[in-house]
Amino acid sequence: MRYTLDPIPHYTSELLPVPHALFTRVGGVSSGLFASLNLSHHVGDAAEHVEANRELVRTTLTLDRLCAVHQVHGDQIAVIDEKYPENEEADGYDALITTAPGIGLLIQQADCQAVLLSCPKQQVVAAVHCGWRGSVLNIISKTVQRLSKQFAVHPKNLRAVISPSLGPCCAEFIHYRRELPAWMQAYQVRPHYFNFWAISCRQLEESGILPHHIDVIGLCTRCNHQFFSYRRASVLQNGMTGRNGSIIALPPIQGR
């Protein structure tokens, strides 16, 4: 893991050989509950602030453009190409795949995980939005399967990074017996608290990704005020807060 302040604060992983970043909430133009690098249009922030923030992260990675979807905690996967409208957010998807150079796949999260996937042997990247519902639906495995079937990616060649997200210190589930399948209950670290980082690692490994090709950033968004956190905001701000951004892309074509 590397932490960079310039031009705006973000984390990267040495595992990923392509442009990517796991952004904090710092360095943007939004104010109030959304201060300052809110990247979501769906939380009540001013649209012009979100667009300015997205431009900041795009230029940080020197990408041609960003693509996002309206995430719904489901398991549907969108394949993004050059024809995907730049200002459109298709509804109902929680994972994105692209083979198009220079298009940043943006995941917006505040406690959920962004799982970034790259295959050095193939020109393809993916980004997955994975909260507890996504874990139950196993959207991670479904994305790996899609990469394998549609893009001829062998899972053993994939690299995966799990973003800052709700850690085992704060992932409390009072009603876990009805919300989580029985196998997940083995990841209860103390009464009602679960290690979803370990759950995602298991799902990645069961999909065929090698353990040493998985990087867990290991920063809890609820504990760390460097990030937006829905759970923290639920206590202090009636749930009103921004969304952190995680991006992965294939390198843009120079001179285009």
TrEMBL record:
Keyword Protease: no
InterPro entries: Cu_polyphenol_OxRdtase (IPR003730), Cu_polyphenol_OxRdtase_sf (IPR038371), Cytotoxic_necrot_fac-like_cat (IPR011324)
Keywords carried by this UniProt record: Hydrolase, Metal-binding, Transferase, Zinc
GO MF, one annotated term: copper ion binding
Presence of the UniProt keyword Signal in the record: no
Pfam families the UniProt entry points to: Cu-oxidase_4 (PF02578)
Organism domain of life: Bacteria
The protein's name: Purine nucleoside phosphorylase
Native organism: Desulfobulbus oligotrophicus
Lineage: Bacteria, Pseudomonadati, Thermodesulfobacteriota, Desulfobulbia, Desulfobulbales
